[in-house]
Structures are given as structure tokens and as C-alpha cells.
């Protein structure tokens, strides 16, 4: 075992302990502590955005700018992949 | 306690992925590790959305009004698409690395060949 | 006329991100028509964006925080939670936007001649514009998840651009390292966002900052956020990708990459000072009689990482043989200086015994100013050096120091720009680096004298490194193989000239900058209640 | 890859239109039923990828080039950001404003869903779904096509 491996194991164990304790402390599954924002969206999705699908109303209306970013991520990946497989000489 | 099992599963997935990234030497395995971490995080977001006895957040006729939270669904959707984009780019780079070095072992790549 | 300007100003936070995005989507179509038109189009898009940044910044510095809600008119519903995404621009955001716009203009203009001989330029300009848009998005957003999305846009675009020279194995390798580190960092950040969302059911930074309670889960989120952002900012235990990525990418890309790194550093500041700002003076541990507050703990951790970063950056720069890699390690060292200043500032935060509000000691204020000023100085100085290295590569097709020599005779402008950059990075009086480094030495001396001694020594070593480079690359007899080397084309000189002029201006009138820009920014960083008040 | 046997080709060409229609259905009903532009686009793109696997990358590249796909993708992205920019002009003049609902810009779209209602509800949401769907189809197919074609070249050498 090299020094690098030992450091990696220590780092890994610390993260593991913290995350497992964190998992035990999270709110019980199925009972969110606080759901004001989401309840507002559920109650108002039909009247404010006109959509029946709450998720679509979040994706394209309430958080539409995120979706623009998401579409841009895909656009970036396509541009990157096409650029990396380009012909190198003119 | 029993209610926290989904979170333990999330932590398990994240730890498996991290272990693959830290300890594996094959580039493809590293990429698989990153994808597993990402699945763990997506699972975490989805578990946050669930409410006991709730339905999907879609109105159809006269259904129950207790619906699961819509925002984490939207976040997961975004994060899945981002994951696909990152995966495509990583595989592209791996193809190029394999063409240059004829190996996928991290210890054998990376030398300068001026 | 003023009507149009007012409308533009009102929409400017959205347009600063949307205009480069629109440009990026249009670039492949325009590239089909004509190559020159596409280059002009990219420059025009960046200039429009910079004009909008100018409008926004001048307004923010005079009138305070400005918010913009996407798709709705009011930021809050029922006065308690923010359903829609909103951009919140305070002094710190505005300051980072200035840096980003300077780097974007210089980078795009420089690209015109620098990249002329390559194929795939349609996609190159698309990705450059996407990177710029992502950088602005990271800087201006006030929403955690939106920050994550733009972080991913910048990291994917910059990864593809780092690997631009696919015929060099090391470039592809650098790109792969970068995407692995940055995607793991981004996943840490996403996980932390999930943890915060699960407790407060909010994604807006100001709303989270208002209701945060600093329980165990919040501590985990803090650690995940800072480590994820530190991976992207190139702080030492996770700096492995940075020299490779900076060194192997085309120089114009490196310039904008510096901006994205600093946007991640901005994220660290925002998380510590604004989101967790309420709890910075909370006592976390009692050792003997002294209470160790959270700010002291974070400050000490940051200072120790900063010292490691400075030492490793400078010492590794000493033994490099490749021009660009040497500058890249110097850039690692410079990141350490900023972190040192912020660490020193955070340690000096305490609770005022009379009023109960959090206050910053005098030397902490100086350190904060020095750190902020050093952000812009580092971007300009290291950026200029990278552009010079790119110019040398363009003219000679070599970047190894052993093969270069005697270039001063043929490349006069490049030599002058290199001298300016060298003096600025090392912190020699007439240049801007001197002012910020002096502030950092002065304030860290009050925290602990050893810190400032190490900082000064490393700065001297940095000077020694670059004098060696200057001697071996520019001075000496004219080498026969470089007989035909010419001065680089005009657009590259223009790109370098813009940055050099700003460096000299900052160096000659430091008080003007300190009073008008740095001072309000320092106050804005520290004042978390104003940031919360901008929304709630 | 030179394409697979005749049986695979026949089945793929029968299954292709079916999965394509299914994907387009998911895109069109994104605001009413589970699904949307991304999900439906991924379905259509995987139908295209099935054709790519069955017939081989050379044959597919002869039918459609990645340049054309790239242009299509740009058009989809432009449609999406264009709809966002229209929000600046109509209605309450905010970027990303859903200007067709509750604001009487075009009366026919000014309708609100009442439990799996008509397709002309929800204002700009269906239009954005179509734009994103076009983008995702072109984008994912371009990635798969370019990767398949590039790896074919390296095997030939």
C-alpha cells in the first residue's frame, strides 16, 4: 500500500461515516418537513400556467431558465463531440 | 429508522461510485463510477419528492389532491440530461486517448510526447 | 433614448446571459455563410454583452442590489418563498462581471488570428460563446440549482476546448482529467443542493441564507459545497488538473478558463459569506478557555490550504521547462494568495459585544480588499502572460524553454507585453500586482508574521522564475532557426494591448480603483443581511 | 460497422415508424401526460439509433450528414430561446414570461387545462416542448452518429 492509497482510504472512510450519519438524520422518507413552495406549485399550476402536468409547468414555466441551461448543456456536448471528431487538415 | 432506508441506498450508491473513481485504474471504470455517483444523486433528489399516499403531480379528472412534490422531478430531469452530455464528452475523449496511447490504463497514459 | 437605456438596464441581468447564448445558437448558421462574418459576429456579440455589463455595473455601484425574476413580476410568493428563478446582482457579482467581460473581449479578439490556421472554427466560436455565457450565468445567478447548471455548461464547454488540439495526446489527456474532476465536483455541489432543499424546501440563495439553522446536515452541505467548488477552483489537494489544462489549451481558451476558475472562487465566497453568513461567529468548539468560532475554524483551514497552494505552485513553477506549464503553476500560486487573503479576513470576523452584530477587524477589512483586488489583478496578469506564451507559440511553434532564444529582436511588442506581465505578477511597484500584494502582506502580518514572510518569499521566487524565462526566451543572440520569425498579427497585439493598458491603468491609479470599486465590493461581501434583504 | 443481417434490417424498418410516432406523441402531449420534449426526443433519437445499428454508420451517413443535424439542432435551440425572448415583447414584458396564458395575446391558446384537456392549453409550453424535442432528436442522433462513424474509421486503418 502506497502513501497515496492510505490517504485515499482515510479520505473515503471519513466521507462514508459522515454521509451515513447524515442519511440517518434526514427527515423520514415520505414525510417532508416543509413543502410550502411545492404545495403552492401544485395548487396553482392549472390556473397560472394552464398545464395539467405539474412537472412540465415547473420545467418550462417556473424554472424555465434552468431548462434553457439544460438545453444549452446538450447543445454544448453536441458541439464539443462534433468538434473533437473534426478533420484536422483543411 | 426503517423510513431512512432509501437514503442509506443513496449513500451506498455514492460510496460505490467514489470507490470506483478513487481505486480503479481503467478509464472506462472511472467513467462508470462517475455515472453511479450521478445515479445516487438523482435517486436522492427523487426520494425527496415522495410523500406518503401521494400521486404523480398530474391532474386527471377527479383525482386525489395529495401529490408528490414536482420541483425535485424537474431537477432530476435536468440533472439526467446534464449527465448524458458529460458522459458523451467523456467517451469521446476516451476514444481519442485510446487512439494516442493504445491503452486505457491511467498509469500508462499522460506522458509528454513532444 | 433614455427610455431604451432604462429598458435595457431593467432587463440587463437576463440579457447578459441570453445574448451570448443566442449568439452561440446562431454561430453555426452564420458560419455556413462566411468565415469572416462569423468572427465579426462573435466580437459584436461580446461587445454588446460588455455594454450591458457596463450599464448594469454602473447602476449597481450607485443604486445597490438589483434583482430580476424570470417569467414573473414579484420575487416572492406569500412573502416567504421564491418559486421562480431570480438573478440577484450585488457589488460582488457586478465586480466579477467586470472581470468576465474584460477577459471575454480580449479572448475573442485574440482568437481571430491565433486560431486562423485550424479547422472546426464554427464549433470553436460556438463553444467560446457558450463558455462566456456560462461564466456570466454562474456569476449573476441567485439560485443554487441554476448555479449548478451554468457550472456544468462552463465545464463541458471548456473541457471540449481544452482538448481542441486532438492531434496532441497530452491535450486530450488534460481535457479528460478536467472533466472527471469537474463533474465529480459538480455532483458534490448537486448533492449539497439536495440536502439544503430537503430541509428548507428552497433553492434560492437568499431564502436559504435566511432560514439556515446550521444543523448537522448543513455542516455536511457546507463541506460538500466548499470541496466541490475547491475542485473547480484548483486549490491544492485538487490542483492536478489545472497546470495540464491551462498549459495544453489554446491560449485564448486559457484566458477565459481563468475566468471560470475565478467564478468558482466566487462561489466559495458566496457560500461562506452569504449563505452561511449568519452563523460565522457561532462557537463550534472549546479548547481550554478559548472558544473557537466557526469563522476562525474556516479561516484557519483556508489559510493552511492557501499556504500549501502558494508553496506548491511556486516550487513546481521553478522546475518546469515548458513555458505555458510554468505560467500555469504560477497561476496556482496566485490562487493561493487570494485564498490567503480571504482566510485572513474570515479569521478576523467576530461578534460586537455591544450591539451583537458581526464585525470585521481593521486588518480583516484590509485583507478582504487585498483579496478582492487580487482577483482582478490575477486574472489580468496571468492572462496577459498566457497570451504572450500563445503569441510565442504562434510565431515559433515551440513552447519548450530550451529551444527558444533571442526573440526580443523580432517581436518587440510581445517583449514589452511580457515585461509588463512579469512585473505585475511578481508585484513590482509600478504595476497593479504590487498594490494588492502589499495589502495582503500588511494584513496577514497582523494575523501571523510567518504567513506574510512566506508570501513575500514566494513572490520573490516567482520573480526569479520569470526573469529566468525572460533571459532564456527573449534575450541572447538571434538563433538561426528563428531568423524568419515575425511579429504576431494585429488582432493578437490588440488583445494583449487591451489587457496591458488596463494593468498599467490600475497600477498608476490604485486609489481610484480601491475607493470606487473595491471598497463597495468589500462591504457587499460582508453584508449578508443586505443580500438576504434584496429578495425577502 | 457494415450493417446487420436482412432480418434485423426488416424488423428495424418496421419498428422505426412506430417508435417515431410514439416519441412524437410523448412530445406533443408533454403538458398533459407524463413526458415532454426531452423524454419524447430521447425516444425518437433511440429509434434513429436503432436504424444506425441495423444499417451501419456508412449507410446512415450517406442519408444524413451531421452538419444537417447540427443546423436542425441550432434551429430547435433558437426556437426555444426565441419563445423566451417573445416574452419580452408581449404580455407583462419579462424574459421567459408565459405570454399566451391569462394575457390574451392569441385567443385560441388562452385556455387552461382541466384534467387531460385539449392540446391548445398551457400557452407556450407545448411550443417549447416541440422546440426542445427537435433539439434533442437532432442532438442525440448527431452524437451517436458521429461517434459510430469515427470509430468505424479507426477500425478501417
Structural commentary:
- The complex is a heterotetramer of chains A (90), B (114), C (536) and D (157).
- Chain A has helices spanning 3-25, 36-49, 54-62, 64-84.
- Chain A has 90 residues and is an all-alpha fold.
- Chain A has one domain.
- The N and C termini of chain A lie far apart (50 Å).
- With 114 residues, chain B is mostly helical.
- Chain B is built from three helices and no strands.
- Chain B has helices spanning 5-23, 27-49, 70-101.
- Chain B is elongated.
- The model of chain B has no long low-confidence stretch (mean pLDDT 86).
- The relative contact order of chain C is 0.10.
- The longest helix of chain C has 35 residues, at 362-396.
- Chain C has 536 residues and is mainly alpha-helical.
- Chain C has helices spanning 2-33, 35-63, 91-114, 121-140, 144-162, 169-200, 205-211, 216-233, 241-248, 251-275, 294-318, 323-347, 362-396, 412-426, 432-447, 449-473, 490-508, 510-526, 528-533; strands at residues 66-69, 86-89, 283-287, 290-293, 349-351, 358-360.
- Chain C has a domain at 280-536.
- The model of chain C has no long low-confidence stretch (mean pLDDT 87).
- In chain C, strand 3 (283-287) and strand 4 (290-293) form a beta hairpin.
- Chain D has one domain (6-156).
- Helix content of chain D is 67%, strand content 0%.
- Chain D is elongated and about 55 Å long.
- The interface between A and C is large, with 41 and 49 residues.
Summary of the model, kept short:
With 90 residues, chain A is mostly helical. Helices cover 74% and strands 0% of the residues of chain A.
Helix content of chain D: 55-70%
Quick one: biggest sheet of chain D?
none
Please trace the helix and strand order of chain B, writing H or E for each element. Answer: HHH
- Give the tally of β-strands of chain D: 0
Count of discrete domains of chain D: 1
Biggest beta sheet attributes of chain B: none
- Number of individual domains of chain B: 1
Rg of chain D computed from alpha carbons, rounded to a whole number of angstroms: 19 Å
How do the SSEs of chain D run, as a string of H and E? HHHHH
Task: Give descriptors for this structure.
heterotetramer; A: about 90 residues; mainly alpha; 4 helices; about 75% helix; flat; D: about 160 residues; about 65% helix; about 0% strand; elongated
Amino acid at each position: 500500500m502506497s502513501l497515496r492509497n492510505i490517504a485515499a482510504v482515510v479520505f473515503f472512510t471519513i466521507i462514508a461515516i459522515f454521509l451515513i450519519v447524515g442519511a440517518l438524520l434526514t427527515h423520514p422518507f415520505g414525510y417532508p418537513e416543509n413543502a410550502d413552495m411545492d404545495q403552492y406549485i401544485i395548487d396553482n399550476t392549472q390556473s397560472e400556467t394552464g398545464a395539467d402536468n405539474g412537472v412540465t409547468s415547473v420545467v418550462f414555466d417556473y424554472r424555465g431558465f434552468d431548462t434553457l441551461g439544460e438545453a444549452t448543456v446538450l447543445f454544448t456536448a453536441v458541439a464539443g463531440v462534433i468538434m473533437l471528431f473534426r478533420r484536422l487538415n483543411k | 429508522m426503517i423510513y431512512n432506508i432509501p437514503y442509506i441506498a443513496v449513500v451506498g450508491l455514492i460510496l460505490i461510485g467514489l470507490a470506483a473513481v478513487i481505486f480503479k485504474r481503467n478509464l472506462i471504470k472511472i467513467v462508470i463510477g462517475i455515472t453511479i455517483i450521478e445515479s445516487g444523486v438523482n435517486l436522492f433528489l427523487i426520494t425527496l419528492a415522495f410523500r406518503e399516499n401521494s400521486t404523480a403531480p398530474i391532474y386527471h379528472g377527479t383525482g386525489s389532491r395529495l401529490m408528490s412534490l414536482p420541483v425535485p422531478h424537474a431537477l432530476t430531469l435536468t440533472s439526467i440530461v446534464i449527465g448524458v452530455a458529460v458522459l458523451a464528452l467523456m467517451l469521446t475523449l476516451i476514444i481519442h486517448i485510446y487512439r494516442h496511447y493504445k491503452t486505457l490504463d491511467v498509469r500508462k497514459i499522460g506522458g509528454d510526447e513532444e | 433614448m433614455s427610455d431604451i437605456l432604462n429598458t435595457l438596464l431593467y432587463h440587463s441581468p437576463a440579457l447578459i446571459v441570453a445574448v451570448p447564448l443566442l449568439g452561440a445558437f446562431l454561430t453555426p448558421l452564420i458560419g455556413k455563410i462566411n468565415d469572416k462574418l462569423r468572427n465579426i459576429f462573435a466580437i459584436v456579440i461580446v461587445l454588446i454583452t460588455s455594454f450591458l455589463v457596463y450599464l448594469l455595473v454602473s447602476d449597481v455601484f450607485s443604486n445597490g442590489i438589483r434583482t430580476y425574476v424570470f417569467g414573473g413580476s414579484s420575487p416572492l410568493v406569500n412573502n416567504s418563498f421564491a418559486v421562480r428563478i431570480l438573478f440577484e446582482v450585488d457589488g460582488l457579482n457586478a465586480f466579477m462581471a467586470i472581470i468576465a467581460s474584460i477577459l471575454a473581449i480580449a479572448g475573442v479578439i485574440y482568437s481571430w488570428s491565433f486560431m486562423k490556421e485550424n479547422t472546426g472554427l464554427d464549433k470553436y466560436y460556438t463553444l467560446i460563446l457558450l463558455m462566456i455565457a456560462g461564466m456570466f450565468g454562474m456569476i449573476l445567478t441567485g439560485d443554487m440549482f441554476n448555479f449548478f447548471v451554468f457550472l456544468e455548461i462552463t465545464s463541458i464547454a471548456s473541457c471540449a476546448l481544452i482538448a481542441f488540439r486532438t492531434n496532441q495526446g497530452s491535450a486530450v489527456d488534460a481535457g479528460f482529467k478536467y472533466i472527471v474532476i469537474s463533474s465529480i465536483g459538480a455532483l458534490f455541489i448537486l448533492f449539497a443542493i439536495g440536502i439544503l432543499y430537503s430541509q428548507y424546501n428552497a433553492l434560492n440563495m437568499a431564502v436559504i441564507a435566511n432560514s439556515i439553522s446550521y444543523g448537522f446536515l448543513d455542516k455536511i452541505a457546507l463541506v460538500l459545497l466548499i470541496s466541490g467548488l475547491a475542485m473547480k477552483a484548483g486549490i491544492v489537494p485538487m490542483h492536478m488538473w489545472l497546470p495540464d489544462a491551462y498549459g495544453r489549451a489554446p491560449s485564448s481558451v486559457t484566458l477565459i478558463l481563468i475566468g471560470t476558475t475565478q467564478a468558482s472562487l466566487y462561489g466559495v465566497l458566496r457560500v461562506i459569506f452569504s449563505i452561511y453568513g449568519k452563523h460565522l461567529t457561532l462557537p463550534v468548539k472549546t479548547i481550554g478557555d478559548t472558544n473557537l468560532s466557526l469563522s476562525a475554524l474556516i479561516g484557519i483551514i483556508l489559510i493552511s490550504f492557501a499556504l500549501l497552494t502558494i508553496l506548491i505552485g511556486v516550487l513546481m513553477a521553478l522546475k518546469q521547462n515548458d513555458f505555458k506549464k510554468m505560467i500555469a503553476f504560477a497561476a496556482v500560486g496566485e490562487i493561493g494568495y487570494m485564498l490567503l487573503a480571504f482566510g485572513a479576513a474570515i479569521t478576523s470576523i467576530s461578534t460586537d459585544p455591544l450591539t451583537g452584530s458581526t464585525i470585521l477587524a481593521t486588518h480583516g477589512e484590509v485583507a478582504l480588499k487585498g483579496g478582492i483586488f487580487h482577483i482582478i489583478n490575477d486574472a489580468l496578469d496571468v492572462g496577459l502572460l498566457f497570451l504572450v506564451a500563445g503569441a510565442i507559440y504562434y510565431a515559433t511553434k515551440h513552447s519548450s524553454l530550451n529551444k527558444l532564444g533571442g526573440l526580443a529582436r523580432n517581436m518587440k511588442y510581445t517583449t514589452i507585453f511580457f515585461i509588463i506581465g512579469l512585473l505585475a505578477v511578481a508585484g513590482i511597484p509600478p504595476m497593479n500586482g504590487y498594490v494588492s500584494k502589499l495589502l495582503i502582506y500588511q494584513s496577514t502580518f497582523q494575523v501571523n508574521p510567518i504567513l506574510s514572510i512566506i508570501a513575500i518569499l514566494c513572490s520573490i521566487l516567482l520573480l526569479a522564475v520569470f526573469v529566468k524565462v525572460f533571459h532564456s526566451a527573449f534575450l541572447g543572440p538571434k538563433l538561426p532557426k528563428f531568423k524568419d520569425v515575425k511579429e504576431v498579427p494585429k488582432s493578437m497585439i490588440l488583445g494583449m494591448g487591451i489587457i496591458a493598458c488596463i494593468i498599467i491603468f490600475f497600477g498608476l491609479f490604485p486609489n481610484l480603483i480601491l475607493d470606487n470599486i473595491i471598497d463597495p465590493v468589500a462591504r457587499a461581501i460582508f453584508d449578508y443581511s443586505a443580500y438576504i434583504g434584496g429578495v425577502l | 460497422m457494415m450493417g446487420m443481417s436482412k432480418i434485423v434490417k426488416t424488423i428495424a424498418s418496421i419498428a422505426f415508424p412506430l417508435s417515431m410516432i410514439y416519441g412524437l406523441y410523448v412530445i406533443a402531449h408533454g403538458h398533459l401526460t407524463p413526458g415532454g420534449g426531452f423524454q419524447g426526443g430521447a425516444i425518437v433519437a433511440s429509434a434513429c439509433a436503432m436504424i444506425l445499428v441495423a444499417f451501419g454508420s456508412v449507410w446512415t451517413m450517406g442519408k444524413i450528414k451531421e452538419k444537417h443535424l447540427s443546423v436542425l439542432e441550432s434551429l430547435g435551440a433558437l426556437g426555444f430561446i426565441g419563445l423566451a425572448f417573445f416574452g419580452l415583447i408581449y404580455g407583462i414584458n419579462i424574459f421567459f414570461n408565459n405570454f399566451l396564458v391569462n394575457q390574451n395575446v392569441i385567443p385560441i391558446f388562452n385556455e387552461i387545462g382541466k384534467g387531460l384537456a385539449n392540446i391548445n392549453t398551457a400557452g407556450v409550453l407545448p411550443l417549447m416542448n416541440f422546440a426542445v424535442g427537435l433539439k434533442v432528436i437532432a442532438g442525440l442522433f448527431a452524437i451517436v452518429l458521429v461517434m459510430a462513424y469515427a470509430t468505424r474509421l479507426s477500425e478501417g486503418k
